[in-house]
Amino acid sequence: MSFEFLLTSLVVVLLPGTGVLYTVAVGLGQGFKASVAAALGCTLGILPAATASIIGLAALLHTSAMVFHTIKYLGAAYLFYMAWRVLQDRTMMKVRDTAQGASHTRILTTATLLNILNPKLSLFFLAFLPQFIALSAPDATAALVGLATVFMGMTFAVFVLYGACASLARDYVIHRPSVMKWIKRSFAGTFGFLGAKLALST
């Protein structure tokens, strides 16, 4: 496993996306333990895309416009739903006692769906993982599984860190409801922007 793979993976994982947004939102609203559930869900949501790329289904998404666009629009719709939910659900990002609020199971499920309904993850793995497989590798499939596992482990660790930072910020925003109000609007706007970007992308 090359240093280039580890460095590139770290950069990709660190880039803010829907998973990071959701993990941070949960960390702000419900604390560290809930953010870990979100991080785990986002990580599990990678598994179908990684599996698809390894067994070749990602190639089908790449060649079948109907399949790709169907999944893409489902993902965009879910992002719009998340934007609406952030704005309308008065409890979703409300800073509260950690014993209250959404269950960890519900948080994990929501986070998992965010990544499952992202068709570009399959295309990303299709283009990304093979670059780091040596032509002389005796078992390319095992090598791909190893790279995907490391990528998922790195995702979980980085997202837990994001969640920890967000949970530490609770002490600041809990006494400043106006700050949380603007954070909530920013998150909703970002989810909406990402949904529109996904829906309009080719």
UniProtKB/TrEMBL annotation:
Keywords: Cell membrane, Membrane, Transmembrane, Transmembrane helix
Alphabetized InterPro entries for the sequence: LeuE-type
Stretches that traverse the bilayer: 6-29, 36-61, 67-87, 107-129, 141-162
Annotated membrane topology: Multi-pass membrane protein
Subcellular localization: Cell membrane
Major site of localization recorded for this protein: membrane
Pfam families the record matches: LysE
Nucleotide-binding is among the record's keywords: no
GO MF, one annotated term: homoserine transmembrane transporter activity
A GO CC annotation given for this chain: plasma membrane
Keyword Transmembrane in annotation: yes
Family: Belongs to the Rht family.
Protein name (Swiss-Prot/TrEMBL): LysE family translocator
